[in-house]
Design brief:
By secondary structure, the chain is mainly α. It has five helices and no strands. The protein has one domain: Four Helix Bundle (Hemerythrin (Met), subunit A).
């Protein structure tokens, strides 16, 4: 199995962590009873809940691209330095992105996002050219 496929499998664990963190902050903010309801008339989230939700949404925005590039790399047999490093960089930065976003450290989140985007670009170039 290629490095990209191995990282794709591990990315599901990272996705689960994002979902669990967002869910935990939601329940801490709104309560378990409300979380189990139809959530009618939902009030604005507190800061940590909002940040965890935004981090999850951001992860999901790039996750499909990562999946497509990892699968394309495998199917075309074009695994190489660019695709391997790109996948590694993307996944590593997504691990760091969640705590950076939730903690609210200025510019850190944006920097991590840019590096993760560079990883996707590396994968694209490696598989497309």
């Amino acid at each position: 199995m290629s490095i990209e496929m191995t990282l794709l499998i591990w990315s599901t664990a990272v996705a689960a962590i994002y979902i669990m963190v967002q869910s935990a902050f939601y329940r801490l903010d709104h309560g378990v009873i409300y979380a189990g309801s139809a959530r009618d008339n939902e009030r604005a989230p507190n800061i940590l809940n909002a940040r965890a939700d935004k981090a999850l949404r951001n992860f999901l925005e790039t996750y499909g691209i990562f999946i497509a590039l990892a699968v394309a790399t495998e199917l075309t047999g074009r695994s190489g330095g660019l695709t391997q490093w790109g996948a590694t960089i993307w996944l590593a930065m997504r691990v760091f992105y969640l705590p950076a976003y939730v903690s609210g450290i200025p510019f850190l989140r944006s920097g991590i996002w840019m590096v993760s985007a560079a990883g996707l670009v590396m994968m694209f170039v490696g598989v497309a050219f």
